[in-house]
Predict the 3D structure of the following.
Amino acid sequence: MNKGYFITFEGADGCGKTTQLELLKDYLKNKRYDVVVTREPGAKGLGEKFREILLNYDGVVSDRCESFLFLADRSQNIDTIVKPAVSSGKIVLCDRHIDSSTAYQGYGRGLDIQQIKNLNSIATGGMLPDLTIVFDIDIETSMQRVGKNKDRMENSGVEFFNRVRNGYLELAKQEPDRIKVVDSTGSIEDIHKHVVSLVSNLLAM
Ligand code: TYD
């Protein structure tokens, strides 16, 4: 059986990671890899209910409540989709994962970073991605891409998103083996080539 891999895509809203995930999926499928795509929040099934609350609920959501909802969604995604797929030799591409909680709820909202990391570890049962790609872009550009139709999270303001961006860069410094930063200001094609080189290195190991 093939070895399975778990690859996560991260970055501030509007960084272009979802486009890159789709391109990588097509690239790997063309190479005959067995690929599973999932996302947080909102993996297939129960995750869709969490996503609806997290992005669209228009009443008060406390910062800690928000954190736990993302973590609950994460546990469900890991247990029902990621772990079974990786164990059976597939490559799982996940749009956002643990580093979103650390960057958004930790650096962005200001909750205790170490506590968020500990909670992440409980939510995932200790499973870590083999590779995490952070798509880095200045917040002015990313907010222009998001446009006027913002969801609950996207309405958090420019200062919040600058903290999120810097949080991701800090996490990449802390875990340089797992987390790779890709400059997301270039062309879609150039960014895709960079992603392919990172993933090829992983698959060749
Ligand atoms: P999504 O539509 O997936 O954003 P994007 O299109 O940028 O990927 O919405 C997810 C939102 O939830 C996004 O603003 C990031 C936020 N989020 C957190 O704050 N913490 C988390 O743990 C996760 C997974 C997402």
About this structure: The first helix runs from residue 17 to 30.
